């Protein structure tokens, strides 16, 4: 009987199997969607195979994202997906250079470069995968195959964001509502998938050569493939489309079968039928209703909130019509004089809100009795303007206000309205009968109704049944609060563990609410929402969702029985309020409505560089309505005809309208300057400087989408901000233009505009983005192009001039000095002009009585491609727009403020906010780029400054998507609230922005417990002893605390980075536990004073303490840079000595344990030794005097004892762990990476903790040499390094003499290794040190590296992800995987990527042996 091989591929949505005979010929292959029931589906497929081929013996192999747990239970070998795919490619299409594989939820690009296989996978976002296509298809009421059919006949492509299924909806929805054809939309969706795959995954690695297309979506959707081929400009020869491309992983895993595992087909099938019980890995939560009785009480309470209804047939008199045209549904309501509801209507838009609205009006007229008439009508919602224009309604009102009217009808004291719709979520806070703040989900729709709907569909349930199932679920699964698609993978995992549909449905209900509360509204404590909460929106019809809201928010909410049509009901009430007796309505009569014909066409506005895509609706009688325009010009009107000041426009012109020298005057040739990031601050300087030196300055043009696309190939990190991504395109433009000298400096220190701020850094991205350009833009490797990116500080004119003289050595010093002086003057003049314009505008506002809005952001937010025309939008309401730096000189900031105010652009924000709070005719809206980590610090602070003085704070998140819908709602709600406030005539009290810091006094030292967040279990247990011997009561918090993250999410702005969530979470978790007396407890935290967010952790902790009403707890800063001092806490010599000894011992222990544990013969011996030595070290530090001789002796003994542990002598791949310091050392933050690597048969190598302190010292050299710092700083720092090296001497000696260990690295060597790739000027976060560590590992024979960073860690975009390409260029053997950690990152995904890296490592190891 022959042995055949069986490959099983369990994907995120389907199961595929393939059976090959002994000659590797395919006998049987099939696939089925598993709707999460993996075991059954697999058994069915095996049944089919059995029916076709009969009984046989098989060697099985499992692969795929969902296969791991099953493989372990069936005891069948598991092979990594990439390896399976590459095996089959090498067999079937060996010429492949790049394979693009799309699956249900994963997208991968695999590069084959000789022997090195490199895979890029989607990490934290599932835009552009199969499930994304399904989601989009359901929007167009079809399925994926339907989209494909439509796409064959497309005429035009629209730009659609594929970064997130939700953004894409936000782009498509208006297009549907504005009447774009399904053909065009389908093709545009496919194009979006292509763009996402290429920009998001390739991250700068070009796709060239022979390209193979694999996976379900590419196999079944011919038009998607065509879109890829079109975009990549491939010809037939370079396009590889193997047959069975969707079964590739299954075939490949069969090719990887091992002879030694055999199983009969029937036996395997039976094993699956008797379903395997898998244990729970996914957390479970409490049931929604414990008993039937609970549910009945809940039902009774909710059914009492009813609206009074009237009988339309017998009604006489005036009726008022409200139409709410939403993003996915259209609602109408008709109310009588007394506010009773006479008629209501709720229906899906089916792509045309206008048609749907007309249908409902026709229905009203069929029922309307003779003596009743529609007296007044008002539209609201997404399509408000279109409906109002088409039917000539009397009023249009922004949806937030209509929702407030409706809610107040049910409860006049309402203070919070939570509205969860199909894909939008709103939380409207009401203060003093006006809308105080509106929160919308701009960036992410996890937690909206359409998501539950899509889910129910994928499990073959109707929404109603799905919701019912949830009510009595026993173990709802915990789905966390992140992207809906990752929830898919969590659900998959739970299903593998046998969770039932009811558990999933209940889990989704919980997660919808958690997302709404923690991710969108960002409440730390759900009870803060309000006393009187009204919930509405279709999603709340689902009892499970409402119940989970009440449970999480611990409140009793009001759900009106008309929850779904509240917007329309509110609009009708507004029409009733605004109607005056004897007024005739302008609304079209029913006959005219029946006759109304309308056509929709598309055009591009050529008015300016925005090139808005206009939708033109033409109605009978020659009326037309145009939408999609950002200003008035597109409608054929004059833009801003009242000439209301727009300082965004003024500043843009002031900065960039310089005339460069002509070619004959420019004796030194051309210099190219990209119009990006800090050039929006310093261009006047550089223009003047180079022009005076007789260069022709070539400035890249105004940003456009086209320019962004020019540079898409070289973007190394998909999660960085849009302004940074644009830089690649601008540099590419200059190169294409033929400019041979490009100058783009790195500026860590901006001008010191606010001397009393803590520092004047630029943000890490602005500082060193040029490094990313240098390492990732391939065209710069051309030797004829000179790209200069020197580090320099704008601190003072003198410091800058000295540096410029060094940089431009070939030009006579006097000339450089003169040019620099002229440039500095011009820069100052440009600043003065903007300030003067600001003062003029304020005077103009006083004279005309108009209002002004300070649109506060960063200098580069004046780029029209970045702000997407928001200033023009505000102008169109007759309101002046000011920039933050036009008023920042007028406001005094009272210090100390809560945050560590160390970035110059932000100091401006705070000053501007402080000025605005004193002026009644000014308000502030903050612009915030998506992915901007620093705004996690600033948005909270600006809000605090304004809110304390009774001003309304509005924040607009912007990114590459130009959806102005959300911005429009925000701006209009703000204006409506301001009008209402004016009508109330209340006095505002203006309060200072400073806070009282609680100081840790000498008195406290005696009896206070100091809590210290855990960062490295190897070191902190030892360091605790060092502090306690010196008279403190320090307690290091426990290490394994997953719960800390949840607490962190409650107390920290969710855009803050993962380490800050961990730190604040640990601290708050301890303080809330009730174990500590809050009046006798302090918190300690280190502060480096560097330019990344870490120096603000103290501010995060203080804000959290304020939220929890624990402001009496002092926060102690431990730092060497004199940031904050506390009289009760001093670093004395005995303490420093003990800390240093402790740190050295911690480093030795870490090194020894990681080196020996994977090879121990007797399991557990290394950990026991670790515990014994830890105790010995602690008792050494607790002694009265710490002798250096004793220390030396202990170093020698410790190393010797570990060195002598008996080992197995096998060879394992060694894997380095580098990255952000907390994630690197804290197992709870990196999901126990070291243990994971050991379990997978590798050895973890983690560089020393002390190296980081050396790095901080070593940085002073660069600062004093090039950035104008005092020389003595460097001298002191170098003494520090010498002292540390002297301390580490004995340890290094002992390590050097041992058999297994190597001594620690020398910091100067690290700097030298890193210097070929990044400049030592990169000093934010881990800076060049991270690159140096990677290089040191590679030189030390550890080419396998896991580079870990918190999701969206700013410095790591540059020195982590940004350098991988450059390191590979120098060391092709480097095998580096970058992994993001954050509260929602799926572990399955991390695991898969680590396994891929390990399999490559194992291969390379074998190759070495042979």
Please render the helix and strand layout as text.
Layout: E1 3-10, E2 14-20, E3 26-33, H1 38-53, E4 57-63, H2 68-74, H3 81-92, E5 98-102, E6 107-113, E7 116-121, H4 130-139, H5 144-151, H6 165-177, H7 182-201, E8 211-214, H8 216-220, H9 222-232, E9 239-240, H10 248-255, E10 263-264, H11 265-273, H12 292-302, E11 317-325, E12 329-335, E13 341-348, H13 353-367, E14 372-381, H14 384-391, E15 395-396, H15 399-410, E16 416-420, E17 425-431, E18 434-440, H16 449-458, H17 463-470, H18 484-496, H19 501-520, E19 533-536, H20 543-553, H21 566-578, H22 590-595, E20 598-604, E21 613-619, E22 624-627, H23 647-656, E23 670-673, H24 679-692, E24 696-699, H25 705-710, H26 722-736, E25 741-743, E26 746-749, H27 764-776, E27 786-788, E28 791-793, H28 797-807, H29 813-848, E29 852-856, H30 864-867, H31 870-875, E30 880-883, H32 904-916, E31 922-929, H33 935-948, E32 953-958, H34 964-984, H35 1002-1007, E33 1009-1012, H36 1017-1029, E34 1033-1036, H37 1043-1051, H38 1058-1072, E35 1081-1086, H39 1097-1107, E36 1115-1118, H40 1133-1156, H41 1165-1182, H42 1188-1203, E37 1214-1219, H43 1221-1225, ...
Parallel strand pairs: 1-4, 5-8, 8-9, 11-14, 14-15, 16-19, 23-24, 25-27, 26-28, 29-30, 29-31, 31-32, 33-34, 33-35, 35-36, 37-38, 37-39, 39-40
Antiparallel strand pairs: 1-2, 2-3, 4-10, 5-6, 6-7, 11-12, 12-13, 16-17, 17-18, 20-21, 21-22
Helix pairs in contact: 1-11, 3-10, 4-6, 4-7, 5-7, 6-7, 7-9, 15-21, 17-19, 19-20, 23-29, 24-29, 26-27, 28-29, 32-33, 36-40, 36-41, 37-38, 38-39, 40-41, 40-42, 40-46, 41-42, 42-46, 45-46, 47-48
